Inverse folding.
C-alpha cells in the first residue's frame, strides 16, 4: 500500500456517501445520481480492480503486473484503477458496481460491513499485518502503550479505522490518542518536519519514503500485531454466481502465479513493475524498488507452512480483529466471520504449474541496473530501522 504521486483518479470519478440508514449513493461531478446495476451481458465485460491508495505508481501490485506481462491471466479482460484517495472509496465503488474488486484494509472492510454493504473477502493478500508506525529518528516507541495521549499523523481521516484497533489490541484506549489528517501524500513529510509524534505507515512504504529522503525509525506491525492485512473483496452476488465465481478463480490464479514468480525472483518482479510504471523506477531507483517489493512480499507470504496457499485467510486473526472492533465500538453489528470471509477460492487459485512459473522467473531478462541489485544485502539490512 505505498504511495507516490497521485494521478487523477478514476475516469468516472464519483463522490460516494453512506447514509445513516446504510444506503450507499453515488453522485457524479455534474450532480447526476447513479444506481448500481447487477446486470452483466457476460460475467465481466472488463474486470476492474480498484486501489485503496489513489495511485497505481507503486510496487504493491507487482503480482498483477507480472501476471499481465507473462500472460498468467489468459484471455481475461482486466484493468486496474487508482481510485480516489478517500480511504473508503475502494469498498463503496465495488458495492455500487463501479468496480468489481477492491483492496481495503481490514478496518475499511469493517466500515463496509457496518454500513451493510454486502461484500465478501475472497483473497487475503497479506499473511501478517502490513501496517507500521513511523517515528523521527531517536524518538520511537517500542511499545504502542507509549503512544497514549500522543498525536498520530494520517494521510486520510479514514485511516483512524486502521489505527484504533491496533491501539486497542496493545491495551491503549483509542480515545486517548489524537489524530491529525496531515494530507495525501504529504503526511510523512509533515512528520519529518516536526508535526505529530508518529505517522501510520506500512511495509513497502518504508523503502518508498527512504527514496524520498524521509528517514524514520519504525514500529513494525508484522512482528507483534494479531490482526490480518488488506484483502480483496467482491460483491456477494459474484461469489454466488457460478459463472462469475469461475472467472474469479481464474483471475486470482493470475495473482497467485505473480506472487510465486516474485518469490523465486524479486528482481524480475520489480523489473515487471518498472516496465508497467516507469515513474516508479524514476522515483525509487532499482535498489529501493527491489527493497520495497521485498518488504511487501514478506507480508504477502508469511509462513506458507501454516497457510493453504497464496491468498489464504487466517480465520483466527479475522475473528480477533472483528471482536476487537466490536469491543471498541467501531463495529456496531455482529459479524459472522465465515459469512464475510471465504477461502473457497484458495485451492483453485493455487492450482497452477509451479515449475513453469519458476522457470519463467529464472529466465526473465533483467536490465543491467536491476541485475546489479544485491538481494542478499537488502535481506541483511531489512530491519535496520525497526525498533521492536
Amino acid at each position: 500500500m505505498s504511495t507516490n504521486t497521485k494521478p487523477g483518479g478514476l475516469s468516472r470519478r464519483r463522490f460516494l456517501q453512506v447514509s445513516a440508514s446504510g444506503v450507499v449513493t453515488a453522485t457524479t461531478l455534474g450532480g447526476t445520481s447513479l444506481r448500481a446495476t447487477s446486470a452483466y451481458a457476460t460475467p465481466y465485460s472488463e474486470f476492474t480492480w480498484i486501489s485503496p491508495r489513489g495511485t497505481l505508481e507503486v510496487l504493491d501490485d507487482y503480482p498483477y503486473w507480472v501476471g499481465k506481462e507473462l500472460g498468467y491471466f489468459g484471455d481475461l479482460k482486466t484493468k486496474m484503477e487508482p481510485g480516489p484517495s478517500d480511504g473508503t472509496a475502494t469498498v463503496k465503488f465495488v458495492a455500487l458496481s463501479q468496480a468489481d474488486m477492491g483492496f481495503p484494509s481490514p478496518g475499511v472492510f469493517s466500515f463496509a460491513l457496518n454500513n451493510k454493504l454486502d461484500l465478501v473477502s475472497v483473497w487475503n493478500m497479506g499473511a501478517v499485518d502490513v501496517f507500521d508506525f513511523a517515528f523521527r529518528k531517536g524518538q520511537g516507541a517500542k511499545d504502542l502503550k507509549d503512544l497514549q495521549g500522543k498525536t498520530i499523523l494520517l494521510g486520510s481521516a479514514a485511516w483512524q479505522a486502521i489505527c484504533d484497533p491496533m491501539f486497542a489490541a496493545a491495551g491503549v484506549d483509542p480515545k486517548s490518542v489524537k489524530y491529525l489528517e496531515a494530507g495525501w501524500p504529504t503526511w510523512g513529510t509533515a512528520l519529518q518536519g516536526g508535526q505529530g509524534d508518529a505517522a501510520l505507515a506500512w511495509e513497502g512504504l518504508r523503502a518508498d519514503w527512504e527514496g524520498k529522503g524521509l528517514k524514520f525509525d519504525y514500529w513494525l506491525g508484522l512482528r507483534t500485531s494479531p490482526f490480518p492485512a488488506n484483502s480483496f473483496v467482491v460483491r456477494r452476488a459474484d461469489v454466488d454466481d457460478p459463472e462469475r465465481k469461475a472467472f474469479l478463480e481464474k483471475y486470482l490464479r493470475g495473482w497467485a502465479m505473480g506472487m510465486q514468480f516474485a518469490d523465486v525472483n524479486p528482481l524480475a518482479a520489480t523489473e515487471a513493475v518498472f516496465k508497467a510504471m516507469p515513474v516508479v523506477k524514476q522515483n525509487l531507483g532499482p535498489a529501493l524498488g527491489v527493497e520495497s517489493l521485498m518488504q511487501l512480499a514478506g507480508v504477502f507470504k508469511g509462513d506458507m507452512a501454516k497457510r493453504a496457499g497464496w491468498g489464504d485467510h487466517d480465520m483466527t486473526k479475522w475473528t480477533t480483529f472483528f471482536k476487537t472492533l466490536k469491543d471498541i465500538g467501531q463495529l456496531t453489528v455482529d459479524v459472522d466471520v465465515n459469512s464475510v470471509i471465504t477461502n473457497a477460492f484458495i485451492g483453485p487459485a493455487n492450482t497452477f504449474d509451479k515449475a513453469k512459473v519458476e522457470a519463467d522467473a529464472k529466465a526473465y531478462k533483467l536490465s543491467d541496473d536491476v541485475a546489479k541489485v544485491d538481494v542478499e544485502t537488502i535481506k541483511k539490512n531489512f530491519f535496520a530501522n525497526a525498533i521492536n
Remarks:
- Residues 278-301 form the longest helix (24 residues).
- The first strand starts at residue 14 and ends at 18.
- Confidence is low (pLDDT under 50) at residues 1-41.
